[in-house]
Write a structure and sequence with these properties.
The chain is α+β, with helices and mostly antiparallel strands and about 200 residues long. Among the domains are: about 50 residues; about 90 residues, no CATH class. The protein has six helices and five strands. The protein has a five-stranded mixed sheet. Strand 3, helix 4 and strand 4 form a beta-alpha-beta unit.
């Protein structure tokens, strides 16, 4: 599966943070990795470089694109960056940072990666960092019980979908833009088959 041009840009910029790599060298790497040449990719790249140059204390990672897994939960993925000191890992996001805190989806990602890393390394990990590259911001995400519950709920829902079940209708559904709109059932109420 191909990654988006924005994600490629964000990752390559992130991997060079804390070094004195020439920006044109980074751009050359992006062009090698990303087959899809979009005109706005260079503009996004320049924006990311500018935003990240404001912060001078970027940590240099000890490893990148690290495969992780959890046998207990039967999940696997790739952590963007590992570090020798806490916070032990970070994920790279090609989106702007929220005005405060961390996006819910990113908190769930951090909870999932923390679960994998704890199992793999056999040590307690508090959480990880989220690098919002277009904003030039890194934020620490301490995994809270709510994050773990949301991760487990997402995992169970993903397994249901993988088994061929139609996703459960959320409390406040985005029906008008959902591709399954016609398959969910009546516009008002819940199908009895979903209850029993």
């Amino acid at each position: 599966m191909a990654e988006s041009p924005r994600y490629t840009v964000a990752k390559q910029v992130s991997y060079h943070l804390g070094t004195d790599t020439d920006r044109e060298e980074i751009w050359s790497e992006i062009m090698l990795i990303q087959r899809e040449k979009t005109p706005d990719a260079r503009e996004f790249f320049d924006e990311c470089i500018m935003a990240c140059s404001v912060q001078k204390n970027w940590r240099k990672c000890s490893d990148s694109d690290v495969p992780v897994h959890s046998a207990q939960y039967q999940i696997h993925g790739i952590v963007d960056k590992l570090f020798d000191k806490d916070p032990f890992f970070s994920i790279v996001r090609p989106s702007r940072a929220p005005s405060s805190g961390i996006y819910r989806a990113d908190r769930i990602r951090i909870a999932a990666y923390t679960t994998c890393l704890q199992e793999m390394f056999g040590k307690e990990i508090e959480g990880g960092e989220v690098e919002y590259i277009p904003s030039g911001v890194t934020r620490f995400c301490r995994v809270e019980p709510l994050d773990k519950r949301r991760f487990l709920r997402a995992l169970h829902e993903a397994r249901r979908i993988k088994n061929g079940e139609i996703p459960r209708r959320p409390g406040n559904p985005p029906c008008e833009r959902c591709p399954e709109k016609g398959r969910c059932g009546p516009e008002h109420g819940v199908r009895l088959s979903d209850l029993f």
